[in-house]
Write a structure and sequence with these properties.
About 40% of the residues lie in helices and about 20% in strands. The strands form three sheets. A five-stranded antiparallel β-sheet has the order 6-5-4-1-7. Strands 2-3 form a two-stranded antiparallel sheet. It has a two-stranded parallel ribbon with strand order 8-9. It has two domains: about 100 residues, Roll (SH3 type barrels); about 100 residues, 2-Layer Sandwich (Protein Binding, DinI Protein, Chain A), CATH 3.30.910. It contains five helices and nine strands, in the order βββββββαβαααβα. Helix 2 packs across helix 3, helix 2 packs parallel to helix 5 and helix 3 runs antiparallel to helix 4. About 5% of the residues have low confidence. It is rod-shaped, with a radius of gyration of 39 Å.
Length: about 220
């Protein structure tokens, strides 16, 4: 860009509605609209453009020279100046509020999901599932064989293994269905449940499906 023409500051006003731009070009980004009658201070002249300061708005930018008048408004007495400045302030303030709202909305964290709790009876899953019933049959066989010394240890190991498998299924189920909490009714912490959030049967079906032996390929 060529060097700006010399010229000192001078009082003026916007003679017709104009745009305050970041550089002296019609394609330059608009800083703010300036309404007719808005008082300005001319800082620099460059060809058909003038760089102006808008008093009270802390804004400096370029305006097309034919839209800036130094005549009647040069003494600051132009009757439209106060109205133009006030309206320009309103427009700029409205634009700034939009930017603030947009920035605030962007920076806000995503809302957390509302709590949704389900209930499961772990003992029923153990008693009614294929893996649980198979474990119970094994305990009974150990008892009938007189191996009572190993019975408690075997029961503890198998039950622990079953609970680990059930937990994995429950976690996957909860994520897919949107549950935030799954409570074990056997723990004695559930004082009320309307039944519609009891997932015990669903978990048994899924557990049995995963425990079923693979079907032979025809």
């Amino acid at each position: 860009m060529a060097a700006p023409d010399t010229g000192g500051p001078g009082r003026a006003f916007i003679s017709r509605d104009a745009n305050l731009r970041v550089s002296p070009a019609e394609t330059a980004v608009i800083i703010a609209p300036l309404l007719k009658g808005t008082p300005v201070l001319i800082q620099v002249r460059h060809k058909e453009w003038v760089r102006v300061e808008v008093p009270g708005l802390s804004r400096t930018g370029w305006v097309h020279a034919p839209l800036v008048s130094e005549d009647a408004g040069s003494n600051g007495e132009n009757p439209e100046s106060a109205v133009g400045q006030a309206e320009t302030k309103k427009i700029i303030a409205a634009e700034e509020r939009k930017i603030v709202r947009k920035k605030t909305a962007t920076e806000q964290p995503l809302p957390r999901p509302l709590p949704l709790s389900g209930v499961i009876d772990i003992q029923q899953v153990i008693d009614r599932s294929r893996r649980g019933m198979a474990a119970r049959e094994k305990f009974e066989e150990l008892g009938r064989a007189g191996q009572t010394g190993n019975l408690d240890q075997a029961e503890e190991e198998i039950i622990s293994s079953i609970i680990v498998e059930i937990r994995s299924i429950v976690e996957k189920y909860a994520r897919e269905k949107g549950f935030t909490h799954i409570l074990n009714s056997n723990a004695g912490a559930v004082f009320y449940n309307d039944g519609s959030f009891n997932i015990t049967d669903d978990i048994i079906r899924e557990y049995d499906r995963q425990a079923a032996p693979p079907q032979p390929t025809p």
